[in-house]
Every structure is written in C-alpha cells, then in structure tokens.
Amino acid sequence: MPSTTMAAAALAVLVVATAVFCGAEAREAWLPPAAAKVPAVIVFGDSTVDTGNNNVIATALKSNFPPYGRDIGAATGRFCNGRLPPDFISEALGLPPLVPAYLDPAYGIQDFARGVCFASAGTGLDNATAGVLAVIPLWKEVEYFKEYQRRLRRQAGRAAARRVVRDALYVVSVGTNDFLENYFLLVTGRFKQFTVGEFEDFLVAQAAEFLTAIYRLGARRVAFAGLSAIGCLPLERTLNAVRGGCIEEYNQVARDYNVKVNAMMAELRSSLPGLKLAYIPVYDDMLNLINNPSTLGLENVEQGCCATGMFEMGYLCNEKSPLTCPDADKYFFWDSFHPTEKVNRFFANSTLQICLKELL
In what order do the strands lie in the sheet with 115-117? Predict the structure, then answer.
C-alpha cells in the first residue's frame, strides 16, 4: 500500500472526456441517423462530469469562482477552464452545448428534457466516499433521476417522457474518488475492511447495482468510463517526487479494476435485455496522450495550469495566484486533478466514436 503521507494528500479525479470540434453542418455529415435522434444526454458521476451541482450543496468542494471557467466566460462549477465531456457530447449530437446541472435553479424541466447532469464532484461508487467531503452520494443521484422522470411526465406526458428516457445517451464517470479520497486516504476505515483487491470487487459490485438500477428506470444506452491512470495525476507525481514520475501502484490498481469492470459489464449485457453498454477506455487514451503530447500540441503533461499545478484544486486554485499559466491549451491538466478543456475535447472524439459504434 502506498505510504500514509502520500495517501493523506490525495484527492480524487477521474479523467473522462468527450467532444468534437465539428459545427452543425459537419455533424450532419458524419453522424449516423440514430445519433440525430438522441433526445438528451443524461449524466451521472463525479467531478469529471459535474456541471455545477456542488454549487448548491454544503460542501467545501466547489469550483464556482475564477479562474475556473475562464475560457467560457463564467465559473459555472465545472472543474475546468472550460467545458466538460458531457457538454461536448451534447453539442456533437445537436443538443445544447452546456448540459445543465439538475440542482441549478437557473434551469427548469424544459431544459432538462434535452440534457441533465446529476453528478457531484467528490462522490464515488461507495457511499462512504461521498461522506468524506459531504457531497451527493451516487444513490441520491439515482433518486434525483426518479424525481426528474416524474417532472418530465408532468411536463411532456407519459409517452414523451418514456421516449426521452429510453433514447437518451447516458454518460457515467465515477470511481477514482473511491480510491484516492477514500481507500488510500485512510479516513473511512475501508482499508481495514478490505484488501485493495477486495475493495475493487466491492466497487465493481456497486457499479453493477447502479447500472441495473438505472436500467430498471429506463436507461438503455450507457457509456461507462473505466478508471484513468490515476497515478499520473499531478498531485500523485508531486507526492512521488523521491522516485519521480507516476505512482505505479495506483496505476496498477486502476488496471486491475478496469479488467473487473469489463467482465461485469459483459455479464450485464447478457442478463439485461435491450441494454447497450459501452466501456470507455480512459486509461489507455490518457497514457497515449501523456506519452505523445505533440499529437495535441501539448507542452506540459505533468503539472496543471492553475497556480503551481502541483497540488492545487478547488479553493487552492484561485484568481489571486500569480503563477496560473496564460494558455491552458498547452497543458494536459487544468488543476492538479482535472484536464483542460482542450484535452476534454480531444478525448471526447474517441469516446463519442465508441458511443456511435456501440450505442447509437
């Protein structure tokens, strides 16, 4: 197990990204007919896909202040300098370019009928993970999904609401916090209850339970992200300064977990009629870009753009820092955990192609 000092500083992120550069005319040219019929993008998970739900809950884990959002002109609560994967997916499918957070009072059910995000930064598959920073647990995201459907039926009628839920594209990005904020942080006691392999099994079982729950509520086309190379996040590199580079122990955990997730997903595909379930290989895509940064014109793949980029996230990444880089497009990471908008956009293209092939 990594050292307590190393673990105690770790918070979580999962780098999941999605997007394309195409405009409306280009989208019409390359998207298959099925994609044009996607009525909504519906999102579950953590900070990699939270478009602002944490703004309105009592947690210290927020990003609704500058310089977050500086490249879209507003700090919306997205942990990025700009847009997140669900935003790019939505735009690519001919839907609004920003997926609204369900708890954002600026939006109503008419907006949510075309896309909605239930995600909460800091949450995980394990309910105990959400308790670390008092964020929305995944089971509560499912409860919001149920409430959303009731509101949608009242607004659009039962048949129309059923079509939205059935034909929507679901994006799920969750799991990293369970390891970096929970198990390796040594605060919940999970490390005493489980070996790391047993904890992986526990999380995979929780993921299967979640996917089954949303399936029973009508979800049929689901993109589920594997873990990224969590040992290569800037904070982990900082904590690994003595040995240098990524923390291989963490990356091995991610690889092992991803193998188990794939096996679980294969079982669900065979046991849940009509379910289309796509695995998003974030780990491989992330390492490929880190090892070949010139493919995207990146100059720094080790530190974040904000502040020193070595340990800052949330309130430590603020507009008073004199060290924040002027051009985030040269960086893989925006803060010490989350990718820049440019990287989100790049990875989105690969993710969306998987969705188009396997789900739409």
Answer: 115-117, 41-45, 169-173, 221-225, 276-280
With residue 147 as reference, give the H or E element that holds it. helix 138-156
What's the pTM? 0.90
Assign 302 to helix, strand or coil. Answer: strand
Q: Taking the domains of the chain in order of start, what are their residue ranges?
A: 4-287+347-358
Q: What is the pLDDT of residue 317?
A: 96
Query: Are 187 and 132 within 8 A, CB to CB?
Result: yes
Amino acid at 132: V
Q: Contact, 132 vs 181, CB < 8 A?
A: yes
pLDDT in tens, 144-185: 999 999 999 999 999 999 999 999 999 999 999 999 999 999
Single out the catalytic residue among 50, 329, 335, 350.
335
Instruction: Report residues of the chain scoring pLDDT below 50.
Output: 1-31
pLDDT for 35 equals 59
Q: At what angle do helices 248-271 and 282-291 cross, to 10 degrees?
A: 140
- Is 338 known to be catalytic? yes
Q: Which of 90, 104, 178, 338 is catalytic?
A: 338
Query: How many other CB atoms sit within 10 Å of the CB of residue 297?
Result: 9
49: tokens are 């896909």
Using alpha carbons, select from 258, 191, 268 the residue that is nearest to residue 228.
258
- Specify the pLDDT at position 244: 81
Q: Where are the extended beta strands (E) located within 209-341?
A: 221-225, 276-280, 300-304, 331-333
**pLDDT at residue 130, rounded to an integer:** 98
DSSP state of 252: H
What's the topology of domain 4-287+347-358? Rossmann fold (3.40.50)
- Residue 334: HSE in the Cβ half-sphere, 13 Å Cα cutoff: 29
Q: Please give the pLDDT value at position 13.
A: 32
Of 47, 120, 336, 350, which one is the catalytic site residue? Answer: 47
Q: Is 291 exposed, middle or buried (CB count within 10 Å of its CB: 0-12, 13-18, 19+)?
A: exposed
Cis peptide before 86 (omega within 30 of 0): no
